[in-house]
Structure formats: structure tokens, C-alpha cells
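Q: Could you write out the predicted structure for this multi-component system? I'm mainly interested in how the pieces pack against one another.
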Amino acid sequence: MTGVTELHKEEKRDITLRVFRFNPQVDSKPYFDDYTIQTEKGITVLRSLNYIKEHVDASVSFRAFCQAGICGSCGMRINGISKLACTTQVWDELEKAREPGVIKIEPLRNMPLIKDLIVDMDPLVDKMKHYSNWVESRMPEHDMGKKEFLVSEEEFLKYDKATDCILCASCVSECTILRAHKEYVSPAVLLKSYRMNVDSRDAIHDVRLGELVKDHGVWDCTHCYRCQETCVKHIPIMDAIHGIREDALEVRGARDTSGAKHAEAFMEDIEKKGKLVEATLPIRTNGIAWTLQNLLPMAMKMIMKRRTPPPPPLVKPAKGMKKFRELFREMTEHVKAEQKSHKK
Amino acid sequence: MKRYAYYLSCINESMTKEVDRSIDLWQNDLGIEMVKLHESTCCGGSNLDYVSPKHFALVNGRNIALAEKLGLDLVVSCNTCLMTIRTAKKKLDESPDLKKEVNDLLKKEGLEYKGTSNVRHLLWVLAEDVGFEAIRQKVRVPLNKYRIAPFYGCHILRPSTVLGKDDPLDPSSLDKLIEALGGTSLPYEHKNRCCGFHTLLVAEEESLNVAAEALEEAIQIKADFIVTPCPLCHTVLDGYQAKALKQAHIQSSIPVFHLSEMVGLALGYTDKQLGIKRHIVS
Amino acid sequence: MKPFDIVIVGGGGAGLYAAMEAMKTNPSLNIAVLSKVYPNRSHTSAAQGGANAALANKAKDDTVELHIFDTIKGSDYLADQDAVEILCSEAPKIIRELDNIGTPWSRLDDNTIAQRPFGGAGRPRCCYCADKTGHTILQTLYEQCLKKGVFFFNEYFALNLSVNGSRMKGLVAMNIKTGKVEAFPARTVILATGGYAKMYWNRSSNAAGNTGDGQAIAYRAGIPLKDMEFVQFHPTGLRKSGLLVTEGARGEGGYLINKDGERFMSRYAPEKMELGPRDLVSRSLETEILQGRGFDSPAGKYIHLDLTHLGADLIKSRLPQIREMSMYFEGVDPIEEPIPVRPTAHYSMGGIDTDNFGRTVMDGVYSAGESACVSVHGANRLGGNSLLDILVFGRIAGRAAAEEARKFEPSQITEQEVRDTEALLRSYMQPSGHFERYGALREELGQTLANNVGIYREASKIHKGIAEIHDLRERFRHVRVFDTSDVYNTNLLQVLELKNMLDLAETVAAGALAREESRGSHTRTDFPVRDDEKWHKHTLATLDGDSVRLGEKPVIMGRYELQERTY
């Protein structure tokens, strides 16, 4: 019988939610409140917060709406990671707690704070507008509603995952570059932009791409994969970002940016030497003037420390380069042939 | 003596020569041998994949095939090379067509990509093959006076669909290595974050802000040094440290060690032998 | 403040379509959309299954006429037939238009929009995008509204229509971010605030905010509500949370199984089986449970929804959200084991009484979507007709308001009215005489409704329910808002939503008591058959002083005569 009692005990536990608090009307700076409540197994973080609001402290403020993981309202950082409170199990979070039994709840980052766990979504909406995150229909106005577009399942699958996005802003909160610069386009908007750009019903692909390759656009992503790893809908966001880049390299005009040049320099080096020529990468990415102004002082320091071979670069090519180069060029022919047949 | 094929990363061939130099020093002490693949080529960073997916598969299929020819696992000591080569491996393993196209070309060099060699980070080899307990026993100069901030970097963790060893947002293997070497591994919020390297030349201001944040926390928690398993992270955190901290108006500094150097120190090698003098921040 | 030509309350499918159409009809109009959540959060996003339209992509012999018949029959002949004709004949146009502006749709082999079978429909005519149809439609509409530059007031809570006698002057609303009450003088107002089924609280699949705000606002302004007693129970809510498992799961071939391992629907709808109409399937589940053939658990009795025979591939590609929800909220992977389900309050057929153009009895006030009752769903809505309703009638109301706005003279809302409203809100925060916690009242309201005005109803129970609602309304007078801050006061919001639910609960119970028959979703155990002679009519609920006055309105008939409804 003791076994059963113990089991029951395990099904219920006292837990502490350490909740970020800030009311701009009275607080000069944020602080944390600890709420210790009894919860049972199977309870979500959102239900715990609801319980606290109804029974302990009605002033704790957070957004919640559908409570079923589809509206995206209750994004917050739970034990340091951005996620939806409504789909997060308390029991799972206890395992990740740094302090035993304590779950830390904070607002999403990278967006202006309004109160407690509530942040301002307007900057994200503004970016969706800036990057034309909508389909500009190819259907003439007078034909609207009269006929369908024919869309292959293959095309639908290109944007299927991307349209899972519920704009919960977890990726926005986790983004490395957005944290470093608030003008950055942000992962959710890149995802939506990609989704629009692969849609054959859309007519403004080039306009959107033109914006995306500018400063604070697609080339500023640092490939940290935090967005993808924290996406509550498991959307491969980096595939979308790479997709836009691939597109940008193919479209004339969009390739004349430092990001595109940087990417292509890799290709060039591998073909020539099999190795990346790090020392000249800055010049090829940003031009000589930028390099002299920005990197010369550091380069001098590095040369003094013998960290990099002094220019001209003396990178030793990889062994057996001759054969390798042949293979590499043959693959280039494959790709060209494929592109030709695609155009047909 | 367990043998591995060792991939030569471009950065370790130029900017961070001290990485391979220190591994050379201590590999035998831990019962492992790295057979350098001098014919290997640049993995394409995280760029070649979208610049030309086909070349990406060819180049890295070839890098792995070189290891397979020796019948050894491929060991990498740069995070981005690791992520890149593993991504290529995943694509080759999942697409018979791509694999065939690549192999038809590789045949001309007498190579074949079979998918038999695993692609692993040096840290994983230490954790899984050598083992923390064995490492603990080999330590000659325990790092017990050091408080160490472990900076994992991104591409040893994420995407987890490609890497999949440590928890992508809450890793622990480097912490365990530090403890095995006698050091104190500090709780460090930025341990799973980004160094900013991959945008350094495209968006410098942003990259330096990213680096400054990681450095600032390490300074705040009074770490004696940061350790990283990635030479690219090292390049930013060490090489660009002065510039980053200046941009963030922080007047302090903190040394940054390579994983291989930290192991070397604990195994009794000197700064000079390990090439630590080559660092910008001392 | 310069009066708006149109103020749309609600940013779901109906509100956004209305905004889009109004801008198209007359781009020079001054239009605002108010929403208590960011529009992309609206509950439209939760509609998983799809929208019906006789495109005949899948079944080549499908016609608008068949769709009309299915809808009328499904409504248990309480729908207005002229309204149903509009709904069904506009359907293909609206689905194509959504396709034209970028809504992603699953596709058939010939690259046309995919369609699947749905409950109560004679042909597979439900157009879908995996199991995220509502979500993707809402995203598309929001994107298009951003493109058109619609002026959004996000996170504004609508409080009241400002009315002078029978003349509407505009809307009074609270800016949630500042706590300030603001006036929106307007020539026309479109209430598109969604349904009221959340009054069943934990026995409801609805979002926490589906509290019938628009219906309560209209009711308080003297506008009649229609057919409020008709609340649809969805057969398959998750056992613990009431959250919904879409009908798509049965459309794709899922089985309902009782504890004896029987596919019991063979007893109730031998032909349609699991794809019978919702009211019938819900009653069947409830009967199985009441007669002891349900499974037992601490979280209550339930039935199995079994998808395991469909295979992992189909479940992953066609029903990914269902799988995710089952895992998050029940800890069950439907690939491996059956999902525990029971009926859950899901949809409100009743709502603000409107004509076929969304007009109410008050000049300048329109309503569309679930907040309105045109009526196209009558006593029971067919699956796949709710998205269609909000889209078709959202568009119609938007166009009507745009064409008629200039007929109404603008007037101003006084400062005094704004200040008085603000003072009323503040009064909830005063400690003296205010001690009741809203959470308890809300919970009790849900319980009493589920127990007394739920799937099976009878006079004695409904009387009990009415008494309890009355008691709860008394206690509400002492409710306390403990959070005294202005900025984003969610405590105050939830209290105001509770007030709306309490106001409406009375109309639901009153209608249920009056209607002495069983029709569609409304089942009286003491009057088990449909009584066309006495009750083939709509009920109207109007606020009279402090209580409900019931009236009636004839059902518009057309081609289809009354028939017994069997499946």
C-alpha cells in the first residue's frame, strides 16, 4: 500500500514559479516574484500561471488566448528559453530547473516590454509590412474569385511548413542578430518572406528580394540556428533563410551585396586552392577601402602575433589539387546543364 | 592507440595554428592518434550549401571518402566544419541520386563515399572514446585554481537534427571535461549562444555586439578564462575582443583558450609549447 | 475626433474580410478595425478542418444545390433558406478568391484545391489546408489587410455602443495597453467578435476570449439576439481540457470506439457512421457514456477516437496538429494509441439577429460571423460551414456598411460618457463591497451551464440553471478587480468578459426553457421530438429592464419542405 501512496505523492508537487515583474507605472526596474503552488503531473505552465492569477496574485500579467498552441499569444521565456506556456509541461521544466523546484518565467526578449510578461508586437508587424509579407496576386482584379490557380502539390510543399508559423515570436526572442541590432529583419519575417517568394501566385518576388538583400536583411543572419531550434512549430527556419540566399545568388542584381560576395568567395577559393584564403576574404567581401579602414589595425596586431600569413596570402593548397579541380569543374558542368534544362 | 582521420580546417591552417599544434602534443598521452588528411579541402563553411548544393555534396563527400579509405572516423576540431560536413553526410545518406552523382565523379580520383565513417568533433571523441574518468587520471597539473566559462559555440549543438549529441540549448559535455581536468565550470548563460563570427564581414557592428555580450558575462561572473571547442569562436572572442569591448564601452579583458590548449595545460604542457602566446589577449 | 465611416469590432475571419471588402468597395472611407487581440491571434485560427464549397474538384457531380440541401437538412430546417442559398452560392467564389490572394490549400493530383468528406455532407466538398485551414485563412486575410493599409487598433476592448435613443453614435472601447477609455464616433459599426461558447468554460473547446463580447454589447443596446439556446457540442473534445480534435480526424477515417470495442455509431447513423452530423454524434457519445459504455478515468468518462489504423504517414501529413495536441494535452500519440475524447461546447449557432446583409434592427449596426445569427446554421451547424459563414457574410457586411455608411449622419460621443465609463471600470477596484473572485464565478458558470443547459436538457434542470445564473449575477455585483494598474490590466479584462458571459448565459437558458421540443443541438428529454407546429420559428431575446424578454421570428422557407432528419 505504501507504494500507492508514494505514487500519489509523486503525482503532486510543490513548485515555485519565479516570475519576472515590471509595471511601468510604479516600478523603476524589474524584479522577480516567487509563487509556490501545488501542481499535479500533466499541468502546463500556462495553467499554473492562470491558477496564480486567479488564486494568489491577480496582478500578474500575461497574454493567453486559445490555450491550445495555435494562436501564439503566450510566448514567454521559461527557464531561459522562449516557448509557449500553454504547451509546456511543468514536469518537463522541473527537470531543466537550475535551482531545484524553481521555474523561471520571463518575457520574450528583443521586443519592447509593456508589463510583466507582455511585450510589444508592433515592431514585428511593422517589419512584416516593410518586407511585403503578403501575396500580391497575379490574378487580375476582374477575374478574382472566378477561377483557381493551379498549384502543384510539389509547390505547396515548398511553403507548407512555413505557413505553420503562428507568429508567437519565440524565434524573434531568441535571435542573436536581432539582439545585436533591432533593425534586423528577424527570423519570422525571413520565413514569411521566403514563403511568399516561392509562391507562384505572387507577383512581387523581385521587390521583396530587393529589400531582403539590403542592410539588416538576409545576409545578416549568423547561422546560429537558435530560431529553428526553439521554433514551437518545428519549422526549419534556416532552410528558408538559405533558400532566400540561394535565390539572391541566382537573381541578377541581388548578388551585388557584400553578403553575396562573401558567400561566393568560398566557392572561388575551393576551386582554386581547396582552402579558404581567409586573409583576402574581407577585401573580396567589402572592398579594399572598407578593409583598410576597419581591419588594418587589427591585421597589424595579428601579424605581429604571427596569427595570419602576411599578405599576399601564402595559403598552401591542399594536396592532390589537380585532380580535385577537375572533379569540381565537372560538377559545375552538371549544374549548368541542369539549369539549362530547368529553363526549358 | 585508437586512430582517427583528422580533418584540416582552413582556419587551423592559418589563423589558429595553435589548435593542431596542441593536439599534436598530447594526443598520444590520451591514447589517440590523429592521422592528418592533407588531401582534404575546405568544407565551404556554412555558405557553400546554398551557393551550390551540388559542389557542397561533392567537396564534403570527398572529405569523408578520404577517411573511409583509411577505414577511420573523421574527426574535426572546428564547429562549423563539423556542422557542414555532417550536413553533407546527412544529405548524401538521404538521397541515393545525389550519392550516385557524387560517387561517379569521385571514382575518377579512386574514391567512394559509402557512408561508413562517422563525422565527429574532437570534444565528442574525448567524451565518448577516451572518457572523462580516463582523462581525470592523466591530469598532471589540475586546473583547480581556475574558474572557467565554457563557450560551446553554435555548430557543435545546432541544428540538433544534424548534430544531436548535447542538448542544443542546454549542453554539458564541455562542462564535464572542465571538471575532469580539475577546473570549476561556471554557470554561464552564454554557453549555448553565438559568437557572431559568421556575420563579422557582413554586419560587423552586430557581430561585435554579440561577442561583447558573451565576453561581458564571462567578466561579470569573474571567470579566469573562456574556453571554446571552436577556432572561429576563438577568433572573434580573442582576436576581435578589444574592438568588441570598446564598442560596448567595457574596460576589461579576458583570455580565451582553445579546448585543445586547456587539455594541454592540464596534461602539463607549457603556454609556449601550446602556442598560447599567439593569442591576442593575454 | 473625426468620426469613422466604419468601425469593425473583431479581427477574425469575418472582421478582416469585412475590412478588406469595405476598402475595395470604397477606398476613400475611413475604416478602423478594433481587436482585443492581435488579429492573427483570433479564434478563426483554431478552425482546423476546412470550408465547404461546391467546387466539384473532388466529386465532379457536386453542386451548389446539394450544398444548400445538406445545410438546410443539417440545420434541422431552422435555417433561413434564402440565407443558405447566399451562403452556398457564394462559397465557390470566396474559396477561389482566397486562393487568388495567397491562401495555401492542399492540392489534388490535377493541381486544383483539395476537398475531403465532412460530417453531414453528401459529397466531399470541404476545402482544406492540412489541419490548419482556419489558421492559414486568417494569416492570408491579415496579410492582405496589412497590404491594403487597414487601420488597426490592436488590443482594444470594446465596451459599449454609444446610443442616443435608437440612434447609434459609435463605440466606446478601452485601450488595453493604457487602460484609457476612448470614443470611436462612427457612422457604422460591424460587430464581428466571434462566439459565446466559452461560457461553458472548461467544458468548451473555445479560446479564453470567446466570451460573446459583441452579442453582449448589442444586447445591452437593445438589439435582439436570435436562437441563443442553440449551442453546438462537438463530439470530440480532449478529455482533460475540452480542446478540440477536428472532424478532419473522422473525415480521414477515424473510428469512435466504446469500452466494449464497438464502433457504436452503427447504432445511431448506420450509413454515415462517424461522419454523421455533429449534434447526432455528440448525443451518441453522451448516450454511450450515460449508459455505462464509456471508459473511466479520474478526469471523467470518455470514448476512444481511434486513428491507429490510418498509419503514421497519413497522420503526420494530414493531421499533424491533432497529433501534436494529443501529445501535449493528453500525453497520447495517436499513431500508437486511441485519443480519449468526450463532447465539448464548441460553437454558438445563436447570435445577433441580422438580415442577409448583416444589418441589425438598429441603423448603422451590423454583425457578421459567429457573433451574428443570419441564420444559416439553424439548430445545428455542419462542419466546414462556420469558416464559410464568417467569410461570406463578413464580406457581405463589409460591402453593405461601405455602401450605406454615408446614409448615416455622424455625431459625437460626449466626454462625459467616456468619463462615466472610465469611472465604472474603476469602481470594480474599490475594496469596499467588492470581494468576489472572478475565477470562481467563471468556473461555476461553466459548470452550471454544462450540467443544466448542456447536451441533454429538461425543464427542472434548466430552472435550476437559471436560478444559479441569477445567483452568480448577484455575486458578480461584488466582484473585485485586485489589480489597480492602468497598463494592460488583464484582471479587469477578464472581469469584463465574465460580465458579458453572465449577461448572455441568461438568454441561452431562457431560450432553452421556452423551446419545448428537440431540434438540432437542442435536446429536451422532456420533449424528445421536433415540434414543427409550435416551434418551427426563431426565438428572439431582448433585454427588458434587467431581464430577458423572449419573442419570435418566422423561419424563411424556400424550395425545401420540412422533412424528418435522418442519416
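A: Regarding packing and overall arrangement: The beta strands of chain A are 12-21, 31-40, 75-78, 81-84, 102-106, 113-115, 118-119.
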